Amino acid sequence: MTTRTLRGRRAILDVHARGKPIGDDANLDVLARRTPGFSGADLANMANEAALLAARRGRKRIGMSEFDEAIERVIAGPQRKSRILSPKERELTAYHEGGHALLGKLLPQANPPHKVTILPRGMALGYVIALPQEDKYTVTQSEILANITVMLGGRVAEEIVFGEITTGAANDFENATDLARKMVTEFGMSDKLGPLALGTKHGPVFLGRDLFESQNYSDEIAYEIDKEVRRIIDECYSRARAVLTEHKETLDRIAKALLERESLQSDELDTLVAGQLLRPDLPALASSAPSLEQITVTPGSA
Amino acid sequence: MTTRTLRGRRAILDVHARGKPIGDDANLDVLARRTPGFSGADLANMANEAALLAARRGRKRIGMSEFDEAIERVIAGPQRKSRILSPKERELTAYHEGGHALLGKLLPQANPPHKVTILPRGMALGYVIALPQEDKYTVTQSEILANITVMLGGRVAEEIVFGEITTGAANDFENATDLARKMVTEFGMSDKLGPLALGTKHGPVFLGRDLFESQNYSDEIAYEIDKEVRRIIDECYSRARAVLTEHKETLDRIAKALLERESLQSDELDTLVAGQLLRPDLPALASSAPSLEQITVTPGSA
Amino acid sequence: MTTRTLRGRRAILDVHARGKPIGDDANLDVLARRTPGFSGADLANMANEAALLAARRGRKRIGMSEFDEAIERVIAGPQRKSRILSPKERELTAYHEGGHALLGKLLPQANPPHKVTILPRGMALGYVIALPQEDKYTVTQSEILANITVMLGGRVAEEIVFGEITTGAANDFENATDLARKMVTEFGMSDKLGPLALGTKHGPVFLGRDLFESQNYSDEIAYEIDKEVRRIIDECYSRARAVLTEHKETLDRIAKALLERESLQSDELDTLVAGQLLRPDLPALASSAPSLEQITVTPGSA
Amino acid sequence: MTTRTLRGRRAILDVHARGKPIGDDANLDVLARRTPGFSGADLANMANEAALLAARRGRKRIGMSEFDEAIERVIAGPQRKSRILSPKERELTAYHEGGHALLGKLLPQANPPHKVTILPRGMALGYVIALPQEDKYTVTQSEILANITVMLGGRVAEEIVFGEITTGAANDFENATDLARKMVTEFGMSDKLGPLALGTKHGPVFLGRDLFESQNYSDEIAYEIDKEVRRIIDECYSRARAVLTEHKETLDRIAKALLERESLQSDELDTLVAGQLLRPDLPALASSAPSLEQITVTPGSA
Amino acid sequence: MTTRTLRGRRAILDVHARGKPIGDDANLDVLARRTPGFSGADLANMANEAALLAARRGRKRIGMSEFDEAIERVIAGPQRKSRILSPKERELTAYHEGGHALLGKLLPQANPPHKVTILPRGMALGYVIALPQEDKYTVTQSEILANITVMLGGRVAEEIVFGEITTGAANDFENATDLARKMVTEFGMSDKLGPLALGTKHGPVFLGRDLFESQNYSDEIAYEIDKEVRRIIDECYSRARAVLTEHKETLDRIAKALLERESLQSDELDTLVAGQLLRPDLPALASSAPSLEQITVTPGSA
Amino acid sequence: MTTRTLRGRRAILDVHARGKPIGDDANLDVLARRTPGFSGADLANMANEAALLAARRGRKRIGMSEFDEAIERVIAGPQRKSRILSPKERELTAYHEGGHALLGKLLPQANPPHKVTILPRGMALGYVIALPQEDKYTVTQSEILANITVMLGGRVAEEIVFGEITTGAANDFENATDLARKMVTEFGMSDKLGPLALGTKHGPVFLGRDLFESQNYSDEIAYEIDKEVRRIIDECYSRARAVLTEHKETLDRIAKALLERESLQSDELDTLVAGQLLRPDLPALASSAPSLEQITVTPGSA
Question: Is E194 on the interface with C (CB under 8 A)?
Fold first, then answer.
């Protein structure tokens, strides 16, 4: 059974649910839809985490809230309640994550954000969980470009709002550069380089594939690739900048809401993007948040 | 006994057929003709798969349909019925595979397509099975160019029909680039580089031959090679584009038929290319299809 | 428990304090604040060193002075009382370390110096202990630039005062160059190179990550990186030169005080920077000092 | 005893002949002359093969025909009777091998062809056996150039006759390029590069000598070498083209005779080159032939 | 106890002296001053050698002469009395070593020569022992330049006196080039390259640090480094040439004295440099001398 | 005991002579003088070979002729009497070796030839044994240039006499190129590159020193080195050509004498160079000769 399909994940979840006291509000179909990109081991892991959480919370049945928490643990590691951020770093994190989330909402071809938070998990001070709209096996050029733009949105928000940039976007750059490079060298999506594969994938694996993969073209072509990667990143950066500048007020609203509530769900983001206010809510716990990250769960090749 | 000859494969099939209940419609001569490029292990594997399939289907004898299914399994892996593609991805796959198949029919020197399908198998969302017209030991320059053109046909179809390109052609580019590079560096088929071997084959094998093979020429020659590979790919791409643009209506007919029936045999493709309609058929099962692939079975060195 | 937070370090210190006779003047909260960047092993090490020192000094309880000495031992190794520097080298060391310390005080975004000394420890003839103002997880561009400037201040002081340069700044150059290179290749802080990651971090680890990391861009980009790193270093060097030239008299005062007292605390530096004289003090022991070093304790990624 | 001399081979053959029933027509002196380049193991192998063949053929004594067949087996592997070539590939093979053979006859300094055949052996669809005229230890520049020209004759024949080129010459290009490269880098036979050794032979052998050998000169020299190798190959190619174009009728005669008889001996080639017809012969068996190859047996360093 | 300080070496010598019959003329303080750069093992070795020498010479106590001989043995290996140089090689060696020694005396910032000899030791035909004036931990730019100039003085003397150069300076060039390269890449002493570290020292150590250290800059910077190293060497060479040409007569006096006496102490060199004659001495033994070398004992980083 | 000195070799020979029946004509002092460059193992080997030869020849004592034959065996391997060269190859060998020998006699600074022969040994068709005039530890620039010129003399003779060149000089080119490269990169003997060491010798030894040695300079310097090596080789080649062209008649005399007598001693060469005839001699055995080689025995660093 493959986890690449909704049906496959549902079947695996059925197996793990057997003999466990599942709460009435817990819906395995919904869980299968929320876990694209999970391996079989991830699903097993998630089911066990949920059971443990329910036990720790003294509940008789595993509810949807335990499953949701378990999904995030599998993706981003356990929460780190002990981290106390300075007010300035908290604000920076809120704008950084807000930048990712807002672009995810505004760019129609990006993976839509499911949740954004400035509650630290693992090594991250905050993160966005974004899911593709459906189980997909191929990704289009415009989807890749939109996702790169979203990745660059964190740094752009820092720049627009604070006029100062930080080390917090290093990971975003790695992901964005990697994707742009694949567009040029694997997906044949650069007119400059043409519909070629540059660097063979099926080469001998010894010191890891990456090492020798990149060596079957000349230095001139290496430079052409570098320039194309740069052009793609620059264009996506400009787009991120244009969109976030235009929607600066929405960005402020999202950052403010994040500082107040620490996490926002997809529908709350929609409300803020629509220019409306969130319903008054229970005030969030005064919690802290570590480094800046955007987590995108994309199935398959991109 | 070698499997490189028809006679050799027939002899091996005789061995594997012994003691097995072969159906009256199963013809070992035909099987030998359908399996160029198979190793002895592949043939043994195929014979066993066919017996298993017959058993699973509750049949007393192994019929031609079991052998045919077994051949595809050996080439492309088991069918993946659980994959449910979105309508958009299914259409994209139909045009991508249709592009390969139509060029395979229209270019006289390409390996003619035996079957095209959008039923997923292994990692592929769809594929074309193409066989060379006869057992051949050498391949001509025009045959290689035609096959490269066919490989690029999937991406070209995406571009012409949807005006949008996807990651689905990455594998095609690898195969096409590899073949173009061999034309230049091994087969002496570039006037620019001349009748030379660039990169020795008989070098020391340590981290795999590919690694060090490519290092016995200067960076200037490496760049010349890159430019020639690019030129070959570009010319084949233009040709694919010209042919598919001219036969856009046939491409539409093939894609439509694939969406209805999921698989097309060589004669059905001929009917569609001739501008005629297919006989009404039993409607295909509502099935799903994964990534885009073209499988070419070519014996020998190319 | 993580040592990246104040709270985490405090908790670990509690564990190590158990059963040990802690003096009344020793404050674990203060110790936690003085040990950012320490690992759990460092904290354990520090607690044991403090206990040993107290025993050696014939004290019944571990006082704050033992803890302070233990912290420096963990950072910079044991004191080397046997080294006798020539007067010229002692003066050179005083100006070199004074240059670091003065810039650390004058540049608002640099990590402020906690202590400066020309008492040799480990391989260093002298050193500065500088701590970031708070537990931080991200570092801004201006903070990095200020810290590079501080690192270059040792050499600049040599040049301004003696008109002669020495080998003593080699280590400073390594740290400064490393930080400047990261600005360009990891933190996306060069307009020339753009918001890209140059050299993937997640590559195969075989001979250590550094080896192959740097090879996924062309030589042209390698040269662009070199030029940007040079530009950053040059600008920081000019800034260090301008600031130290302007405050030459303060630098003289600090160097003179170091030659007299061997070590200066943060508040003594403040007094000297304010143009005032230090209170007469017990004359320091006639001690010697080895090579020139600036020790910056920065938590996290920079 | 060395096999590099006629006398040495004769002595070794004496040893292997002991106790074996040698036929009256078998002449060990002639065998020694036909086996330059053989190692001691090759000679032992050849003697055993001959004995086996005689046994299989039900003969009491090992005749010269068994020895001759055994020599070819050692050089080119066993005959492959099961390969059935298409008429087009057979014709192509006949012209390809005919091109090698005719140039071997017409160029006075080339190793003269002893036999040419389109009966497949091992991986080859056909081959030429060429022997140097005498046991030689040094090779002159004109001899090397003539042998390169012969190697390129197969491709040239394809081009002249069919106006289409194939993958069948890949092996010829490797041998010709290797020889041309040695002229430039080892034998000091390029005025452009001078009487130098480029790439040391006595370097450390670790991953095989070739790997590191080529690295002790600059990229500029690497490019000079590449251009010289190209010039040599081009001049030899032009010469092959000129000679075969001028003697196109002889080439046709040889190809026709090969298609009829499958193999031609040296004297039959002479007859055809002289413009005469071959004596009517027993018609050759309708046999098949695989890939295109020229086997040159050269003793020693070239 | 460290050997990097005078006090440390004295303490170690005390340990090794215990229980040994030390002569009245042997002064451990002087010995400690003569052994900068010695490791603990070197000191132990030296003490044992001195004891053995005294035994071999039938003395009851270890005198200063045994200790002096032992120090040289540790530095340069045992004397090689069996080497008989031709008169021409002896003269060449006298001028080569004389060139080193004279520059060491005339350049105020060079390590002053303690002794010069043409008595062969180990692989060297002759050598100079030069000690820094005091225990030092940092080295200035002018000191490094002076030491490079001294290193080149051997070759310069050959050139000035004989108009012919030999292979005897190969080792000097290695040391001088290494030091010049460190000025540029580690000590930030080139205006052209700036105050940077080029090649990280803390990289992964696998095949030794040197291998991968040098690869984190572009080829353009590599060339800049090469040109700067060349410039430094050229300037030092010119300086050596100017000084030795001006003091040619002193050089002649030193060479002549070396040929007569084989070894010269620091004060004898001073006498010759001052233009005076040496006191008539016991004629040196007719001894022989091997290759040309200058031994500089420098503590620490340079 | 070292073999680098005459005295050392004499002492070792004494050891090996003990208990062996040495003939009256055998002089150990002469043997020591004839074996510069021999290791201790070589001397032991030589003594044993001489004893074996005497036994084989049925002699009671080991005479000087056995020692002389043993020396050559150690240098060049056993004689190969079975090789029968064609008259053309024999003549070529005579001129090739004659070229080496004549230049060795005419260039005053070359190692003078001790013997020249066209009797094959080991892999060589002929060879020259050349000894330096005395035990030397340094080599001058003019001596190296003279020796390179001698090495190139074999090819030059081929070219002048036959107007045709062969593969027989490959080994000479390797030796000459290696020596020229050392002049430029180790001995500081190129004005273009300066008195530098290019490629450190003390680097990590892993895959052998040569591999990584050559990598610490830029490609521009690598090209400069290549050009200088080429210039040196070209100048030596021109010199060889000029000298041999001028003394063509002497070369003819030497070649003729070699063809008649197969070997010539130093004094016979002198006679021929002086334009006189050799005394009628016992005609040499009709013997054969393999490939072309010049063996130079040089002690030490060059």
Answer: yes
